[in-house]
Specification:
The structure holds two protein chains of two kinds. By secondary structure, chain A is mainly beta. Chain A contains no helices and nine strands. Chain A is globular, with a radius of gyration of 14 Å. Chain B has no helices and eleven strands. In chain B, strands 2, 4, 5, 6, 9, 10 and 11 form a seven-stranded mixed beta sheet that branches. In chain B, a hairpin with a 5-residue loop joins strand 4 and strand 5. Chain B starts with a strand and ends with a strand. The chains are: A mainly beta, B mainly beta.
Amino acid sequence: DAKTTQPPSMDCAEGRAANLPCNHSTISGNEYVYWYRQIHSQGPQYIIHGLKNNETNEMASLIITEDRKSSTLILPHATLRDTAVYYCIVRVQNSGGSNYKLTFGKGTLLTVNP
Amino acid sequence: NAGVMQNPRHLVRRRGQEARLRCSPMKGHSHVYWYRQLPEEGLKFMVYLQKENIIDESGMPKERFSAEFPKEGPSILRIQQVVRGDSAAYFCASSTGTGLTEQYFGPGTRLTVT
């Protein structure tokens, strides 16, 4: 799987948009970008995933650059409960491989301030 | 629909004792994954099981650790003769299928070895 790089920490004001970047410059054509988050002392929570196109769901938006070498997770109106470690994970689309293994790096600690 | 359940949430064991961690997957999920999170680190894959079968245990330490997912009942992660280095949070996830199917995580069991 491609390696990802994320800033170790970010701050955001409550009510503002939080934009979390992820670099995955070695991503290959059949690899998806997934985002999970882990609120303190809880299990990871799936947020969103995408391949090429931008994606949006009730939690967040995912913007993937045209060359797919980086992506940004956007929380449009951050709340205090969004304070968590956010993980960007690349997973290969390969039914014969071990793409069920989620590889978590250190992630980005997002702190939403009042 | 109840989520993934893990018990106990906190477990304290003395060195040399056995630890048994239980995971009940979400209803309808027949695939279970165990991950370990050491302090200040990301989650690391340990083992993937389906009912009565171990599919991939490549992340499990070779000694003292075992896992099962019987036909009836929860999945069990068993650690024999625990040592201080086993102190960690152990998370279980479940899914309806393999590959890129979404994994839903439980709240984790925090094991402390004294």
